[in-house]
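[job 4471] stage=fold_predict status=RUNNING
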Amino acid sequence: MREPKSKQPHTPTTTGLKLIIAYKALKAPVMLGIAVWLTVAPSQAYQIFEWIAEELYAANSLWSPLGDWIANHLSVRMLHRGAALAWLDGLFTAAEAVLLILRKPWSEWMVAIGLGLLLPFELVSVIRKPSIGKLAVLLINAAVVAYLVRRRINQRQLPSTEEPEGRTASISNRA
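[job 4471] inference complete, writing structure tokens
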């Protein structure tokens, strides 16, 4: 027999989970906004990135390599790829935020698996061309995966204090 919606299990909310939800809830609209911008106004985006590249290149020796890199990689094709990537990231991040807000036990597994699948790519990126930013993203994502997996494993190991509804009635009817 299926439990009523109010009786379905929810995972407890912790500070760590609240931080993850907040991050996902803030990141999703930002990425979706970027996706819309790159899709609706690619020529405007191209001009802005071109201006940013020029400004960075002219700024000083610290920023000029970044400006040079942007100028060398900037193309309409890259903007289209960026838009597709922003759409994917924004939609998946929004879905993860909603799943975590619902606090269903399986939602944490879904987020952990989704992030975990990206870790090897992030690791390869750090190894090929190390940077503090890439390393920070890798470590934060690995910490989130470890936190969610540990949380789910610990929740499974806790003894259930509540009997499922209907089970006690069937046991007492047998006696």
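[job 4471] summary: DSSP finds seven helices and no strands in the chain.
[job 4471] exit 0
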